[in-house]
Design a protein that fits this description.
Strand 4 and strand 5 form a beta hairpin. This protein is of the alpha/beta class. The strands form five sheets. The chain has a seven-stranded mixed beta sheet. Strands 17, 18, 19, 20, 21, 22 and 23 form a seven-stranded mixed beta sheet that branches. Strands 12-13-14-15-16 form a five-stranded mixed beta sheet. It is elongated. The N and C termini lie far apart (58 Å). It has twelve helices and 23 strands. 48% of the residues are buried. The chain is 34% helix and 23% strand. It binds MU-OXO-diiron. MU-OXO-diiron binds next to helix 2.
Length: 399
């Protein structure tokens, strides 16, 4: 079995999808699997851009064989050494013993560390601006450190105006039989693209901004990422989204209500707040962080201008799912947002004070309204306090 497709006359898609993978990196929910993209250039030289995850080794290697059509493989360009793109590098280098490796100096060290093999004689390290003449295609290498590891680089092919963008512009999920952005509902897929970017690369906004500046100087007709769709019709939209996300600016003026509830009382209060906000015409999302992968809540918190965090007190602390989310937000460089708080506690509510301390320690964070406190279950006083908080949030969002 193989599955390949032309991207241009000379460039073929040779990647593969793991449709059974429900957890990317053992951590992020991927309900419909994950795509591991790889591309082959057939010019006077043949050049493979990255390999693929071990889970798809069989079909990936069959794809490369088929796309080469009996030719030798001259080069493998390693943009990124994370194993979802390099676990089959050893197999490719064994299968095509004359293939050279083009990669950054840092990737060269990682190749030795990951494979345990000495490929020194086959490696040519490249840096920003270096080129490879493959025939009519001249490949120019672009340093892209920390997108999403330090060794990352991208490649620009001026002949077909293709940017091979490594992890950038990828998305969670498989592609449902589509390959290009205009073969799917691009807008409906944006939530998963945002969740992917903000969780995987989101910490490195400054580095993404630097690469976007380099990309702006290129004439790009196609972006070929290592996950998700090949972009050809929505390149400007994708770049605009990355510009907003990587500059830590909110994308949505509204309130994301995120809750961690033990028996459902905090959840009820969170939904009451969402209802009160919607009555006031405020864009609102509600997320349960206890029953879903917290990457969903993290992405929404980044995208919204305001978040309300609602959690039960637990072991004199914050109920664990919310505590983990706040730690993850901090680790991802969450900043410059407005937040509100709701707490619950049957005898000594503490979660509001503790969440406040975590959030206030992040840069540029501003609290809106008074913390809503429940003792066990929401009552009429709670509902009054929720209405007041909705007023404060509505005014803040509107202002
Ligand atoms: Fe898709 Fe950073 O690996």
């Amino acid at each position: 079995m193989y599955s390949i497709r032309n991207i241009t006359d000379d460039i073929l898609y040779v990647g593969a999808e793991d449709l059974k993978q429900t957890s990317f990196e053992g951590h992020y929910t991927t309900p419909d699997g994950m795509a591991y993209n790889s591309y082959l250039l057939r010019d006077e030289k043949t050049v493979l851009f990255d390999t693929a995850d071990r889970a798809v080794a069989e079909i990936f290697l069959a794809n490369v064989d088929k796309a080469l059509d009996g030719r030798a493989l001259d080069y493998v360009v390693v943009h990124h050494m994370e194993p979802d793109h390099s676990a089959t590098l050893d197999a490719v280098l064994t299968r095509y013993p004359d293939a050279g490796i083009l990669c950054s100096a840092q990737a060269a060290k990682m190749i030795a560390n990951f494979t345990g093999s000495d490929y020194t004689a086959r490696i040519r390290t490249v840096k920003e601006g270096d080129t490879l003449e493959a025939g009519r295609h001249t490949l120019r290498f672009i340093a892209a450190p920390m997108i999403h590891w330090p060794e990352v680089m991208m490649t620009y092919d001026a002949f077909d105006r293709v940017l091979f963008s490594a992890d950038a512009f990828g998305t969670f999920g498989s592609r449902g039989g589509a390959l290009f952005d205009d073969e799917t509902d691009f807008d409906a897929r944006l939530d998963e693209a945002a969740r992917y970017y903000l969780n995987i690369v989101g910490k490195y906004g400054v580095q993404v901004q630097n690469v976007l500046k380099k990309a702006a100087a290129l004439d790009v007709a196609l972006i070929c990422p290592l996950h998700g769709f090949v972009l050809r019709s929505r390149i400007a939209d994708a770049i605009a989204k990355y510009d907003v996300w990587s500059s830590y600016k909110p994308e949505i003026d509204g309130v994301c209500v995120i809750y961690a509830s033990v028996y459902g009382h905090t959840a009820a209060a969170a939904h009451a707040l969402a209802n009160a906000l919607r009555k006031r015409g405020v864009a609102t999302d509600v997320l349960d962080v206890t029953n879903a992968d917290k990457s969903y809540a993290l992405a929404k918190a980044f995208r919204y201008s305001h978040s309300c965090f609602a959690a039960t007190t637990y072991n004199a602390g914050v109920f664990v799912a919310m505590e983990e989310l706040l730690a993850d937000l901090k680790a991802h460089g969450f900043k410059n947002r407005k937040y509100a708080l709701m707490e619950n506690g049957s005898w000594a509510p503490m979660s509001g004070k503790l969440m406040d301390a975590s959030l206030a320690a992040m840069p540029g964070m501003t609290k809106v309204g008074d913390t809503v406190t429940m003792l066990s279950a929401p009552n009429t006083q709670t509902l009054d306090a929720i209405e007041k908080l909705a007023d404060a949030l509505s005014e803040s969002v509107g202002g």
